[in-house]
Each structure stands twice: as C-alpha cells, then as structure tokens.
Design goal:
The chain is mostly beta strands and 248 residues long. It is built from no helices and 21 strands. 0% of the residues lie in helices and 43% in strands. A hairpin with a 4-residue loop joins strand 8 and strand 9.
C-alpha cells in the first residue's frame, strides 16, 4: 500500500521583541538574548524554517540560516546527505553553498544557491540533475545555468525561472521529451511550479502558462476567475489562488 505525505509549516518563529536593556559591564545579557549594537541586549538569532517542500516520499525544508534539511526515502540519494540511507529524522544536505530556495521532485531535489546557481541531488535516470550520468547523493551543479530566481521540480524534470523571465528546464516526462525548451520567455513571470509532468508559470498579467511533454500553452482559468496569483501543481491536478478566492 502506498501512503500519502502531508507536512505543515507552522509560523512558530515570530516572537515579540522585548524592551532592549543595557548589557552588563561584562557583556552579559539575560537568557535568550545577546549583547548587540549600542551595547543593548537583543534576542539571540533563531534558526527557523522558511520553506517546506514535499516530493513523492521525501520532504525538505530550507532554514533561515540558508541550510537545507531533508528526511524520508533516500534510495536515490534525494536527501543529499551523502548516503542512500532513508531517515525518519531531518538530515542536513551536504553542501558549503548558502541556499535560498528548494524544490522536491519525485526522487530528486534541487536548490537555488545565493550566487543564483542551481544544485541538484538524487535520481538522475532521466537527466533531472542537469548534468552527469549517474545518481548523486550530494548536491551537484546544474551546468551552464545562472541568474536563477526560482526553482520547481516534477516527476523526472526540473525548471528554473530566471531573473530575465526566461524558463530553463531539464530532464524528461513520460513521453521522453524535455519539459519545455530552454530560453522561453514568459512576460513578467512571477512564479513557477511543477508536479508530475506538468510545469506552470504565473505571469504578471495573471495569465497561467503551463506545459507538459514539451508542449506549452496559456491555460484557461476556471469560470469566474479573471487572474491567477499563485499556482501549485500536483501529479494529476493543479490549484490556483485568485485575489479573493481559492479554485481547484
């Protein structure tokens, strides 16, 4: 039996800012505070979860210290810890890169680094790591790609939304075709999402552009919905949020 995977990101990192007292003469402060600028006690830095992404049978989070931690099935190295051992507890992805975004595919994972490069790990049976010929249990760079603003991963492909609003994809879908040609420009693209063999981009005009098996088109929105603000793509469905509603 195959079980679904559900994770929830809780907004538990915010805490009220206390009145800033002066540090003690020796620099000491109350528990949970450090001596900061102006010799005032301030809350100690906290490491919180900024992004949560789930694949078929693994999940990854991006922490506020720009590290990525993953857990779940790891038969292809999709946890990125240098092993193929599955883990029920989060393990840190082995990289010196500071990461700013993460996407989980079926059995691979990709992340955007602070220098706008992309790194992927896990299964590479369809070229979804963007380079090399074999699976990788640690992050490997996607060759020839930079200036990335956002990343999305589907079943056996990944797509990057570039800062110039172009889209670059690699890997394969069920038909064996690359999921969209490199260099396609989406006017004022704001967001990208992938799931199964489908990838969608929301443009600044609210139009939803989607493609599967290499064919792209502007997809019609449900009746009564005049524009999309955000999109999420599953294996066989997608959901969009409109300015004042949620439509599936």
């Amino acid at each position: 039996m195959r079980y679904g995977l559900l994770c929830v990101l809780l907004a538990a990192c915010e805490s009220p800012v206390p009145d800033l007292a002066a540090c003690d003469p020796d620099g000491a402060c109350p528990d949970g505070q450090v001596c900061g600028a102006g010799n005032r006690c301030e809350p100690a830095p906290r490491t919180c979860t900024d992004q949560l992404r789930a694949g078929d049978e693994h999940t990854c989070v991006l922490r506020s210290d720009q590290s990525v931690w993953c857990w779940g099935r790891n038969t292809s190295g999709q946890l990125g810890d240098g092993t193929t051992d599955s883990s029920g507890a989060p393990v840190r992805v082995m990289t010196d890169q500071k990461l700013t975004a993460v996407a989980a595919g079926s059995s691979h994972t990709c992340a955007v680094a602070a220098d706008t490069s992309v790194w992927c790990w896990g299964s590479n049976d369809a070229g979804q790591l963007g380079g090399g010929m074999f699976d990788s249990p640690v992050p490997a760079p996607v060759t020839g790609l930079s200036g990335v603003a956002a990343i999305a991963s589907g079943r056996s492909h990944s797509c990057a939304l570039l800062q110039n609003h172009a889209v670059s994809c690699w890997g394969q879908g069920q038909s064996g075709s690359v999921q969209y040609g490199d260099g396609k420009r989406i006017a004022d693209a704001q967001e990208i999402a992938s799931g199964g063999d489908v990838t969608c981009v929301v443009g600044g005009d609210g139009k939803l552009s989607c493609w599967d098996r290499g064919t792209a088109d502007v997809w019609p929105l449900p009746a009564g919905v005049t524009g999309a603000a955000h999109v999420a793509v599953g294996s066989n469905f997608l959901c969009v949020t409109a300015p004042s509603s949620v439509v599936t």
